[in-house]
């Protein structure tokens, strides 16, 4: 949920709704651990897509209790960076993926490049 607006696949939100990190809640197995990532695959130019991905948010090793209540724990490897698309770059897609770990914590590097994140 961004700024009180429920997010559904494919819906369009104005950039001002994305200023703060979304509130993510799900009914999950209380023993699970998760990681969440948000990217903009259209950051630079659709004409040069090989360098387009931009990492806006990455939180690793989130306990299930924090998914049930809204993400506020885990390792914030990349703090939430609100979208600010450059002028004349067209519409941008923002993709949020929540990964459930298979019984182990992720080892994530201390620094992760925002540009060309893959």
UniProtKB/TrEMBL annotation:
<dbReference type="InterPro" id="IPR036610">
    <property type="entry name" value="PEBP-like_sf"/>
</dbReference>
<dbReference type="InterPro" id="IPR035810">
    <property type="entry name" value="PEBP_euk"/>
</dbReference>
<dbReference type="InterPro" id="IPR008914">
    <property type="entry name" value="PEBP"/>
</dbReference>
<dbReference type="Pfam" id="PF01161">
    <property type="entry name" value="PBP"/>
</dbReference>
<protein>
    <submittedName>
        <fullName>Uncharacterized protein</fullName>
    </submittedName>
</protein>
